[in-house]
Design a protein that fits this description.
5-stranded mixed beta sheet; alpha/beta; 16% strand; single chain
């Protein structure tokens, strides 16, 4: 029995070293993107003449942001792409997810991307997430699900809060509301 304990302690030590190297050290030695690269790349992609038709609106209140989200979902005709870091249990989330199901029933192609670390663990919305995952007309993916054997991916989180309707209209950013 003593040898089992010794093997377990050695394995734990090696695992902690493994975590230290791949979850901490690799991120500490990464070089930042060079300023020259960023400047030349951004100049190549910004063409103000072709962007004259684009419009941006700032939505300041959480209530207005929810109404815009619902409006985007309810008026989507072909596609609905949703990317979220986390969903918080509450009435507004229930209404939002209900609207997504209504869109699917209308024939809208729905794709959802959620951060894997929060949606792969137990939570109040776990059953809802699994229901969406099993729905035949909803394409749900988890970004970087938590895996103890790949500590280098622990810092890879999806912090997006985006809804895109018909590849044309989008709401970017998030508000906390329940």
């Amino acid at each position: 029995m003593k040898w089992v304990k010794e093997i377990f302690i050695k394995a734990l030590k090696y695992y902690l070293i493994y975590i230290f190297i791949f979850a901490i050290v690799l991120f500490a030695i990464q070089k930042p993107i060079e300023k020259e690269y960023v400047e030349t790349t951004s100049k190549n992609y910004i063409d103000l003449e072709s962007r004259k038709k684009d419009r941006v609106a700032l939505i300041e209140s959480a209530e207005d942001a929810l109404l815009v989200r619902l409006n985007l979902i309810e008026n989507a005709q072909e596609t609905l792409d949703i990317s979220y870091y986390t969903l918080i249990e509450g009435k507004s989330t229930q209404v939002l997810l209900g609207s997504v199901l209504d869109a699917v029933d209308r024939g809208v192609e729905v794709r959802i991307l959620l951060d894997g670390i929060f949606h792969n663990l137990k939570g109040k919305l776990k059953d809802t997430i699994y229901g969406f995952e099993l729905h035949p007309d909803i394409n749900l993916k988890l970004y970087e699900s938590f895996n103890l054997l790949s500590p280098w991916s622990w810092n890879n989180r999806l912090h997006d809060k985006i809804i895109i309707a018909d590849k044309n209209l989008a709401l970017i950013g998030g508000k906390k509301y329940r």
